[in-house]
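Need fresh eyes. Consider my entry:
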Amino acid sequence: MWTYDRRLQYPVKIACPNAETAKIIISQYGGPDGELGASMRYLSQRYAMPVREAAGLLTDIGTEELAHFEMIAAMVHQLTRNLTVEQIKEQGFAPYFVDHTLGIYPVAASGPAWTANYFQSKGDPITDLSEDMAAEQKARTTYDNILRLVDDPDVREPIMFLREREIVHFQRFGEAMRMVTDKLDSKNVYAFNPAFDGGKK
């Protein structure tokens, strides 16, 4: 059960709307390495995680990723509010505008809409945690790329906060990987298929 605190995890206050920047930022809303995929990944994987502490971590980080999803939505909204049709055309936002006006919709910066194909839930703790560590690094790289392209400090500050959280999540998943491998029988590190580990018993 969740309780909702009606404030963003980190404040978003963008003074200068810019649809060109919104086109970049939106990738972390609905792109292949974005916050929606991250939250769905972790909140799905937690059910098959055999170590309770690691399952709790997946719940915690999955919930935090929903807060990051909300932050990105606020950024896209603030970057596109009150734009004229001329600005929308000049700033390259017309194709998005045709389909969604200025509503917030999960798409990648390159155009494709969000899909569940962007995340995995395999049911094997080692596989899933490896996926999670890689996902956090891919998200961090995406934020690095955004920071290379965006100069507005009102945009950069929340993006830097989100980037820092990806690094923390990567570290936490590394701790969970060590915890899981320590708790699983050393002859059964793959949890559900001990016969595959050299046939040892």
